[in-house]
Design goal:
By secondary structure, this protein is an alpha+beta fold. The protein has two domains: 86 residues, no CATH class; 116 residues. The protein contains six helices and nine strands; from the N terminus they run H-H-E-E-E-E-H-E-H-H-E-E-E-E-H. The strands form two sheets. A five-stranded antiparallel sheet has the order 5-9-8-7-6.
């Protein structure tokens, strides 16, 4: 299919899109009849505290609370504002969770629904940035991934697995470059990931992880 050249949306359009996505996600959560069962499927905690319904959910090694019925999302024990893209991801994960256990079978982005159509865009937004910043010294990836609760894995020259949500492990893999070959990278997923997030959400999640890691790298090493 011939690609069409379209103007990039401005910041206001991005903000509007995120706000609409958040509004729709809130409406989807409000329609769930058995919220306690849905929390169980997502691995989150449901409680009633002081006449309020509260969901506690872990995302990128931080604890978040969702209060119902007004649906407010906040960091536990922190006044820091939650970015709206993170709010959307949290709600999409919570409302989409099917409760299937991790399969311990890995797949690539191209194996996701419609993944083959968007794999080049995904690579540009995530893998190429990871390789650019970590490819020459991949051990640094292990060091900074700990900031997101990541742990070392056994793929490539260096790899880490980060549990973005309790049922969504994301594994980042690097092959170190040398005088003959440029560094390479990959991001792989458990085969059940589409039971929890759409392919678009997976792209946004991996981009979020990538840039958090790069920001941690810059703080630690000044790169």
């Amino acid at each position: 299919m011939e690609s069409k050249c379209v103007p990039l949306p401005n910041q206001k359009n991005y903000e509007y899109g995120n706000e609409m996505a958040y509004k729709l996600a809130c409406e989807q959560l409000a329609r769930i009849d058995d919220i306690e069962q849905q929390c169980h499927k997502s691995g989150s905690l449901y409680q009633e505290i002081d006449s309020q319904k509260v969901i506690t959910i872990k995302y990128l090694d931080q604890s978040y609370q969702i209060t119902l019925p007004n649906i407010e999302i906040s960091l536990t024990n922190s006044e820091e504002q939650v970015p709206i893209r993170d709010k959307v991801l949290i709600l999409h994960y919570l409302t989409s969770a099917k409760g299937n256990p991790v399969a311990n079978k890995l797949i690539t982005y191209r194996e996701l629904p419609e993944g083959s159509n968007y794999s080049q865009t995904f690579s540009k937004r995530t893998i190429k940035s990871l390789v650019h910043h970590f490819g020459q010294e991949p051990q640094r990836l292990v060091d900074v991934a700990e900031k997101l609760g990541g742990h070392k894995a056994d793929y490539g020259d260096v790899s880490v697995t980060i549990n973005a949500f309790s049922q969504v492990p994301i594994t980042l893999v690097l092959w170190q470059g040398d005088t003959e070959f440029a560094p390479e990278g990959s991001i792989i997923f458990d085969a059940t990931i589409s039971d929890y997030l759409s392919t678009e959400d997976i792209t946004v999640l991996c981009e979020t992880i990538t840039w958090r890691l790069i920001n941690y790298l810059r703080r630690a090493y000044g790169d």
